[in-house]
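For reproducibility, we list the full input for the S-adenosylmethionine complex.
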Amino acid sequence: MRVFGECLTAELPTPAAHGEVIKEYDAELYDRQSTHLDSIAEFQAFLGDHLDGGGPWEIIDAPCGTGLAGPILKPWARRLVGLDLVPAMVSQAERLGCYDDLLVGDLLDMLPRLRAEMVVCHGALYYFRDLAPIVAAVAACLSQGGYFAFTDFPAPEGVMATRGGNARFCRSPSLVRELLESNGFAEVASELRLSFTLPCLYWIFRKR
Ligand SMILES: C[S@@+](CC[C@H](N)C(=O)[O-])C[C@H]1O[C@@H](n2cnc3c(N)ncnc32)[C@H](O)[C@@H]1O
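The corresponding predicted structure, in tokenized form, follows.
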């Protein structure tokens, strides 16, 4: 984690505009890249370690991307909804046939209008400089006792960003904990694992 911190800067760039995010993705290529498949396998192992025997829940996979997490979430789901900003990613997810509903849009706008017992956000929070609006949107969507499971790259302090390339935001574990606690969540689990070949924190919180 300390070495990863050397690749980060406290000078925060402007987050990517929606149009840039949409241009970034080639849905078919995405599914063929082993780093994406390996990250889903890590996420599956993490959820299995902490949630086995739970459910079935109404789950929202936000963002769902091409739906790589769909098959691993399905066993826990009474109803599985996916949403993503990129229409081509959602079309690819549709082909899997494991989502009950798929929506295109910004998760910040859409989550407060939806209801769920679990919200999953795998491999996407690095797009967001500020985690607070996400946590508020998830809290608005979740029923009491509902789970928020997500991955987030760790920073040594506060909010930092990767140097060069596309802007990728990272946060200190204490910032994540404080934010979730102050929005009425209790920590269920956190583990340092790999995601997209980088050290990443895997988190589960539960709405009180
Ligand atoms: C690296 S992919 C991860 C997708 C999926 N969760 C997975 O594990 O394969 C990141 C996804 O975040 C989506 N995304 C980025 N910003 C978003 C936003 N504001 N609202 C909804 N989706 C967003 C992108 O379109 C992309 O599909």
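Residues 21, 25, 36, 40, 63-65, 68-69, 84-86, 89, 106-107, 122-124, 127 surround S-adenosylmethionine (CB under 6 Å). Residues 34-51 form the longest helix (18 residues). Both points were considered when choosing residues for closer inspection.
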